[in-house]
Amino acid sequence: MPSIARAAIPLVLLLAACGGGAEVPEETGPSAVLVNPAMIAVVDSIRLESGPVVSGTLVAERVAQLRPQVNGAVLALYVREGDAVRAGQPLAVIDTLVLADQARSAHLAARSAELAAETAERNLRRSEELQRAGAIALRDLENARDGLAQAEAMREDARARLAAARKQLANATVRAPFAGVVSEVPVSVGDVVSMTGAAPIAVVVDPATLELEGTVPAASLVDVRRGASVEFAVPSQPGTRIQGTIARINPAVDPATGQVRVYVRVPNADRALAAGLFAEGRISVEARRVLAVPLTAVDAGATPPSLRRVKGGIVEEVAVTFGLRDELAERVEVSGGIAAGDTVLTGGALGTPLGASVRVTRADN
What we know:
The chain is an alpha+beta fold and 365 residues long. The chain has three helices and 22 strands. The strands form five sheets. The protein has a six-stranded antiparallel barrel with strand order 4-11-14-13-12-15. A four-stranded antiparallel beta sheet has the order 2-21-17-18. Helix 2 runs antiparallel to helix 3. The relative contact order is 0.22.
């Protein structure tokens, strides 16, 4: 607690003066109650915030599970877990021997169909000239027209087959759909994969933007809106404070928990955070600078709740008004009957009798 050192100053009979060989004076009155330094605090002016607390797990906003688009054996793998990739970068190749043969056959068939269509077109032009000269019957001209239509249809079909074969051949190379980091490569070279298989070839995530999938009580929905600012901390990274904004709000309340799921967008350009981390934060509703004490300084057993101040080394009860409550900072606003710099008891020291003389023990005792 940052104010512990300051809290010991105004107390009387706290610690004997050091230096010069001075002796600790004997108590002339009742024995002082020993108080641990961790159980005192100084009233201070700090910034408090209030709002619904939200907690949950960080997940990547964009995740691509790249499943095979063709059947075959994995011929090559170009990446490993943790590798950074750019959009369109090849990650793996599935055996293309059969697909390449199919593409060549489709190409030959398409070329043959093109030639047949060109021949049918020339036949039609010649038939039209002969029919105008009266050299052939109208029926022969109609046959030429039908032949061209059939040849053109076969040409379009061959073109479509060629495009499909080329697409299948291209699908044999698995590429990153966006820039990111490879998080999983669950296959090895030689593994046989299929389009109906459940396992992906690789998983790519975009760590530049994460989402906090959290929940808030349904009663707090009035304070939750899209675009609202959220400040949160990651327990595994002490001291880290991160800003995000609410991107989406689930419109349904979980009947079992009474909670509503919210999604907080978290910029992560420096990649300081990782998907899977637990985070806890607060949706900012109100913030201001106030006089505050730790929540553990509130004597909830008193009616109304009050503080126990140490003044002149003696414990006294102080009636105050409590205001803004910051659950994350574990502080509460106080006003009336209290001033900045006042020393108050906290935690187990709240049981110290009113009017008792107190003495703070050394921190190393």
